[in-house]
């Protein structure tokens, strides 16, 4: 009987022992942000750090996180395979995500995806042979007020048409960096992964230089016009309610 692949990296192999000392130092910096008895909370940024090195989370990346945090590979793999932002195979320089969820789909999101898929010759979670573009469906990119929405390395292109989407990926393949509608200028997938691991970058293109759009601010303006405010928040409120005394 042939071997059945579930598309998961083998959690029984890979150590990350060959990863560079610079990456190990960055990992220690991340872990030091957390209380010593909560170091496992550093796993999510550590996985982004691994992606900034490899472009995805390999079996070695899983072994690296496990050894840095004293976890089992199975524990790390369970997290890495749960969240879609952690990629299981090499990702292109530009991750193009097209929202095909309800709101965007009603406004043409699937047509955008289909156009890109046909133009690039790749399907969901596939990368062009030149290693430039990885295409994926996304389930709501939290910008429904600008649908149909597409992101490139998590920066937004709003109200995008199939023709505009095709033009954006063509420019990316030529080495250009089209300006997103909002947010920071584009960087590569590895560069954005390092930012997601919590390391600020001083490159000008790493910084957001836009303001929130009209549709995003509409609710705030309505609230201000009607005098609606959020309840006060006491920052001393314990995150975990203290147990009532049994006496
Ligand atoms: S449905 Fe597309 S961003 Fe929410």
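-> sequence recovered:
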């Amino acid at each position: 009987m042939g071997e059945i692949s579930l598309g998961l990296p083998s959690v029984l192999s890979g150590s990350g022992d060959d990863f560079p000392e610079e990456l190990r130092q960055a990992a220690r910096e991340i872990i030091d942000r957390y209380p010593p008895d909560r170091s496992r909370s550093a796993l999510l940024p550590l996985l982004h750090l691994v992606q900034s090195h490899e472009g995805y989370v390999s079996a070695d990346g899983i072994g690296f996180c496990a050894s840095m945090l004293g976890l089992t590979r199975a524990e790390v793999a369970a997290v890495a395979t749960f969240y879609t932002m952690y990629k299981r195979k090499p990702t292109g320089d530009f991750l193009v995500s097209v929202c095909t969820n309800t709101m965007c789909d009603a406004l043409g999101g699937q047509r955008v995806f289909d156009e890109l898929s046909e133009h690039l010759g790749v399907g969901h979670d596939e990368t062009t042979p030149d290693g430039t573009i990885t295409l994926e469906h996304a389930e709501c990119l939290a910008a429904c007020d600008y649908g149909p929405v597409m992101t490139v390395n998590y920066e937004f292109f709003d109200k995008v048409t199939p023709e505009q989407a095709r033009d954006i990926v063509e420019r990316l393949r030529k080495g250009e960096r089209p300006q997103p509608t909002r947010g920071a200028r584009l960087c590569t997938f590895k560069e954005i992964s390092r930012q997601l691991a919590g390391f600020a970058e001083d490159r000008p293109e790493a910084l957001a230089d836009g303001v929130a759009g009209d549709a995003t601010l509409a609710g705030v303006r309505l609230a201000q016009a009607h005098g609606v405010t959020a309840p006060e928040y006491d920052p001393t409120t314990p995150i975990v309610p203290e147990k009532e005394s049994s006496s």
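The pocket of FE2/S2 (inorganic) cluster is lined by residues 99, 101-104, 140-144, 147, 149 (CB under 6 Å).
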